Amino acid sequence: MKKVIVFLACLLSLAPAYAQLRIGLRAGLSTSDLQVAPATVVGPGGLDYLKLAVDEAHFGLQGGLVIQASLGKRLLLQPEVLFNSNKVDYRVEDLTDPTAPTTIKSEKYQNLDIPFIVGYRLGPLRLQAGPEAHIFLNSTSGLTDYEGYKQDFQKATFGWIAGLGLDIWNFMLDARYEGNFTKFGDHITFYDKTYDLGDPPSRWLFSLGYLFGKR
Question: Which of 16, 94, 105, 153 could be 142's S-S partner, Cβ–Cβ 3.0 to 4.6 Å?
Fold first, then answer.
C-alpha cells in the first residue's frame, strides 16, 4: 500500500500547483473478452495429465477512489485506486482417466487497479486514456485440487485504458475499454511449468462515480 501512495503522489506532482483538485468515488462492472485456447498439461512423467480450458468469465466488480485535477476548462488528470474482483470458471478434463467426468473449477482473484487517466472535456463529454497498473492482492482457486498446481501471480502487471465519460452535475458515467500487456493465465503453473491460455485479456468497464465539491 505504501508503494501505491508513493505512486499516486508522483502522478499528482505532474499537475501544476494551480490545478483544481476534487476527490470522488467510483463503482462499476466489468465484462472480460478472452481470446483463449485449451491447454494440455503435461505430468511429471512426460505424459498428458489434464486438458484445461476457460468455461466462463464472470462479471467483475470494481470500486474505489478517484482524484481529479482540472487543468483549465478542458484538460484533466485523473489517477484512481480501484479494488477489482473477478471470477473465471475453468473446464478440466483428466487425461489419465478416460472415465473421469469433465469438471468445472472456479478461480477468484482480487487486484488493485491504478489507472492514470488523461482526459479532455467536450462540454459534458470526456475523452480519456492512459496507462494502468494492476497490483495483485489475493486469489483462491479450485485448481489446487489437482496435484502439481501452483499459482504464480506477478506482484504487478500493466496495461492501458481508454473510453468516454459523461458528466451530469457531480456524477460521472463512464464506459472504458481496457487492454493488458501480459497473457491470460500466465499465473497457472503445473509442476513448475507455466500454461498461459491465450492473448492478453481485455475487458469493458462500466461505472458510476461521484465527485465531491464544485467544478
Answer: 105
> How many CA atoms lie within 13 Å of 81's alpha carbon, on the beta-carbon side?
16
What percent of the chain is modeled with pLDDT above 90?
63
110-142 pLDDT, tens digit per residue, is 999 999 999 999 999 999 999 999 999 999 999
Residue identified by cell 482457486 is 141
| Grid cell for residue 191 | 509442476
Q: Which of 163, 175, 177 is nearest to 206 (CA)?
A: 175
What are the extents of the domains in the chain?
2-211
* Beta-strand pair 149-151/171-180: unpaired
Cell of 192: 513448475
6: burial class by Cβ within 10 Å (0-12, 13-18, 19+)?
Answer: exposed
Please tell me the distance from the alpha carbon of residue 117 to that of residue 161, in angstroms, as a whole number: 8
Give the tens place of pLDDT for each residue, 82-116.
999 999 999 999 999 888 899 999 999 999 999 99
* Residue 144, Ramachandran bin (φ over 0: left; ψ between -120 and 50: alpha; else beta): alpha
Q: Looking at the domain 2-211, which fold is it?
A: Porin (2.40.160)
